[in-house]
Protein: Beta-1,4-glucuronyltransferase 1
Amino acid sequence: MLPVEDMSRDLNQFLKKSEVQSCKKCAYVVPIYEISTNVTKNPRNKSELLELKHKTFARPFHIKVYEPNQGNSDLKKWEKLNVKETLDVAYDIGKYHQDWEPVYVAKADTPPFDERFVGYGYTRNSQVYEMHMSGYQWKVLTNAFLCHRGFQTTKNYSQQRKKQ
Structure:
């Protein structure tokens, strides 16, 4: 997974905000998109990402393999929002959905995931469940996103991962 250009700088500035510092149980969700291998370079910003999606060269991560993975992030809502000048919270996610595996930024004292899980699956969603039960708030970020190269399909999905 590759971050959008300047995401590290933007996150560092965002995390210094007093409202972010004061929220002890907030997790900031970073949207994830698959980018077609027919595209030679990743989008540099949300506008470029949405243009690729419009041309069917980008789509939400795991949408064809396992929709619940990112489904609770409500990326259709995220896509409709205007690009902001600075990184901020786009919207809150009010409801937890089972098997949701967002990539997020949070304070280091989040509940740990169960390290007994081996291989693919249940590490992130078990941690997200523990966070949900502990009262965490989920907030989707405005301009930040990650790119995964290549479309995931059930045909090209690793047989080893299915076994795991």
User: Anything to note?
Assistant: Helices lie at 7-15, 18-22, 46-54, 68-71, 75-80, 123-133, 159-163. The chain has a mean pLDDT of 89.
